[in-house]
Task: inverse folding
């Protein structure tokens, strides 16, 4: 994704400078051309040689050192930048840029660039929450500078709170995101993911094997392409993608209500979740106790849950509604029946009897069936690639509708 992109990484003086080493390494793995500018104080935390070795480019610190190129270096770097990342960004660099100060190689290059500039702040919690720093951040945001919110946690200064630089992987993903084709701007997309759970008593519940991986990958792909994404998710162990609105639910009825809340304002609903079709008719409010004896049995009566995708497929107006079908046998026949009965625009059928497909895996084996019955089978692919195929198909349908 970053092949031949010129990413300038500015490193300022914070303990998180060691994480910038990982960021540079990860950007290189994405085939970016990475050039690093360090402030003088940053070199006290990490040696320029470390960055030079990873970036395979000279590291810039001093503006007045013998130039390596004939060009004025801060201007040539500013001009060649496809994107600029400041990580870690201290209160000092944020304050300087907000006030138009250019007094070293890094600040002058930032002042001279027309490329996107992204700050990944890292500092003590009190510094971060200081109204002066917050005012500088707000002002820079107004001017179009971007910020990757720091995380909350125990900081090197032994305080707990916001100020810990975002994780290198998240920062790199944010940078990759910049270069995505934002072809879904203006579209609101609801994605449902994961299982639902239905309680039996205060300690027991019924659920299924859905991990949420498929739905989360779809949400991520749609967000990268510029859509406003609402991820309605059952319980999973996954971190939701950055930039999406997350609504957490447990039961199928809660999932139904959450979709209903958002549906009228959306253009697309993708039902990748595996909601339970049935729930116990009676939920005991005390723990169900076993009785003595081998003949003891527990009989639970299950009643139907609402079929969410069928409800919205049938009541949709202009929306595109996409369903999934998880099948162990007669894949195409069952999936086609669901496509018609639930009035879907297309259905993604997974053959969950095959290795590497369906629940929990990182890959999936899908066949997509259109509303006109046309089918296309795909080989085993990573779920992120399946997500891309689904979002491309939705984009085609949006184009046809408009
Ligand atoms: O989460 P992962 O571990 O990554 O696994 C991915 C997956 C296998 C869960 C996913 O790819 C998938 O197939 N999701 C649908 C699973 C399912 O419930 O299939 P179904 O054939 O029972 O349902 C058909 C469609 O109706 C689905 O879009 C489902 O979301 C929807 N449905 C089902 C029941 C219900 N009460 N309401 C619904 O909206």
Result:
């Amino acid at each position: 994704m970053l092949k031949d992109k010129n990413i300038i990484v500015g490193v300022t003086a914070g303990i998180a400078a060691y994480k910038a080493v990982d960021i540079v390494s990860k950007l290189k793995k994405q085939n970016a051309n990475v050039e690093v500018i360090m402030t003088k104080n940053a070199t006290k935390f990490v040696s320029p040689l470390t960055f030079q070795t990873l970036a395979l480019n000279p590291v810039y610190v001093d503006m007045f050192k013998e130039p390596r190129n004939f060009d004025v270096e801060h201007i040539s770097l500013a001009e060649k930048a496809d994107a600029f990342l400041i990580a870690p960004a201290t209160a000092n660099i944020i304050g300087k840029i907000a006030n138009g100060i250019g007094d070293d190689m890094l600040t002058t290059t930032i002042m001279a660039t027309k490329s996107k500039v992204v700050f990944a702040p890292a500092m003590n919690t009190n510094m971060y929450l200081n109204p002066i720093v917050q005012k500088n951040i707000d002002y820079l945001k107004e001017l179009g500078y971007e910020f990757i919110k720091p995380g909350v946690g125990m900081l090197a200064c032994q305080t707990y709170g916001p100020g810990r630089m975002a994780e290198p992987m998240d920062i790199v993903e944010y940078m990759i995101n910049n270069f995505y084709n934002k072809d879904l701007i203006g579209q609101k997309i609801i994605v449902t993911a994961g299982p639902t759970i239905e309680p039996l008593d205060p300690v027991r519940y019924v659920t299924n094997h859905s991990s949420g991986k498929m739905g989360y990958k779809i949400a991520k792909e749609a967000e990268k392409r510029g859509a406003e994404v609402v991820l309605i998710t059952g319980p999973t162990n996954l971190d939701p993608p950055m930039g999406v609105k997350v609504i957490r639910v447990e039961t199928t009825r809660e999932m139904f209500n959450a979709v209903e809340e958002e549906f009228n304002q959306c253009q697309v609903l993708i039902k990748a979740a595996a909601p339970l079709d049935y729930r116990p008719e009676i939920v005991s409010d005390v723990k169900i106790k076993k009785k003595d004896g081998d003949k003891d049995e527990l009989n639970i009566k299950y009643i139907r849950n609402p079929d969410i995708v069928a409800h919205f497929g049938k009541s949709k107006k202009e929306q595109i509604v996409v369903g999934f079908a998880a099948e162990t046998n007669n894949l195409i026949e069952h999936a086609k029946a669901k496509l018609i009965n639930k009035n879907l625009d297309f259905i993604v059928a997974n053959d969950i009897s095959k290795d590497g497909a369906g629940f929990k895996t990182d890959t999936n084996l899908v066949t997509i069936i259109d509303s006109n019955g046309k089918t296309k089978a795909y080989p085993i692919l990573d779920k992120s690639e399946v997500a891309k195929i689904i979002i491309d198909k939705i984009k085609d349908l949006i184009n046809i509708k408009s």
Summary: The chain has 13 helices and 22 strands. The chain has two domains: 6-177, 188-280+300-401.
